[in-house]
Design goal:
alpha+beta; about 230 residues; about 20% helix; globular
Length: about 230
C-alpha cells in the first residue's frame, strides 16, 4: 500500500510540474511590452502540446520575430540568439495539421512548408489582419492554435510597424527598431540591440478551462454552405 501511495504521489507531482497537457495561457515577454496568448488546448491538442514542448525546453528564450509583412503576419519561432549569434532553433518532429479554427486577426497559427500540410515544427505567426480567405484554404489550411488576448495586439501592432530590412532569406523581412537605412548600408551597428526580441515565453495559467469563454471562428472550409432552398 505504501508503494502504491508513493507511485500515486509521484504521478501527481509529475502531472503538476508538466506544462505540456495543461498550460493554456502563456505570456510573451518582449522589449515592446508583454502580451498574453490563450491556447486552444482542447481544439488543437497536438499543436498546443508541440508549442509548449518548445516553451518548456527553453527553445523560445531569446528568440526573435524574424519576419514582418504589413497587414499580413508577424512571424517568429525560427531563430534565437545563442552566444551573440542568430541561430536556427533546433526542431522536434513535425506535427499533424489541425485546421479547426480560422486565421482571423489576433490569432496565432503554425507556419509550415509549401504543399506540405503536416510540416509545422517550431515556427508560428500572428495574423495582423483577417487572412481567412487565404490561409484557411492554402496548403490544407494553417493551424490556428490560440488567440492574443487583452491589449496584446497593441504590442503586436507596434512591432509590426517597425521598418523591415533584407538580410537574405529567411531574414529578408526582418523588423528592426531604431535602425536606419544608413545603419543598413554600413552594417556596423550590432543587430541584437534592434531586433524584435522575445526574451521568453512563460506559462501563466495551467488550467485547461481558460479557453471556455472564448469563441474562436471556425475554419471557413468547415462551415456548411448556405442553403439553396427547397424542402
Amino acid at each position: 500500500m505504501k508503494n502504491l501511495l508513493k507511485i500515486c504521489s509521484f504521478t501527481l507531482l509529475i502531472s503538476a510540474l508538466s506544462p505540456l497537457s495543461h498550460a493554456t495561457i502563456v505570456q510573451f515577454q518582449t522589449p515592446a511590452g508583454d502580451f498574453e496568448v490563450n491556447l486552444f488546448d482542447q481544439g488543437t491538442p497536438q499543436t498546443v502540446d508541440n508549442f509548449l514542448r518548445y516553451v518548456s525546453e527553453g527553445h523560445y528564450e531569446d528568440a526573435i520575430f524574424h519576419r514582418s509583412v504589413s497587414g499580413f503576419v508577424l512571424q517568429g519561432g525560427g531563430f534565437q540568439h545563442i552566444d551573440f549569434q542568430v541561430t536556427p532553433i533546433a526542431t522536434f518532429p513535425s506535427v499533424t495539421n489541425e485546421p479547426e479554427f480560422s486565421n482571423v486577426r489576433g490569432t496565432i497559427a503554425m507556419a509550415k512548408l509549401g504543399s506540405q500540410p503536416d510540416s509545422a515544427t517550431s515556427q508560428w505567426f500572428i495574423n495582423l489582419d483577417d487572412n481567412s480567405a487565404n490561409l484557411d484554404i492554402t496548403n490544407e489550411g494553417f493551424t490556428v492554435f490560440g488567440v492574443v488576448t487583452g491589449n496584446g495586439m497593441g504590442v503586436i501592432d507596434n512591432i509590426a510597424s517597425w521598418p523591415t530590412f533584407n538580410f537574405g532569406s529567411p531574414l529578408n523581412e526582418q523588423p528592426l527598431r531604431d535602425y536606419t537605412a544608413e545603419d543598413y548600408q554600413n552594417q556596423t551597428v550590432p543587430l541584437a540591440e534592434h531586433q524584435a526580441l522575445i526574451y521568453n515565453i512563460v506559462v501563466l495559467d495551467a488550467s485547461e478551462t481558460t479557453a471556455d469563454t472564448l469563441s474562436p471562428a471556425i475554419n471557413i472550409t468547415l462551415i456548411d454552405p448556405p442553403s439553396t432552398g427547397g424542402s
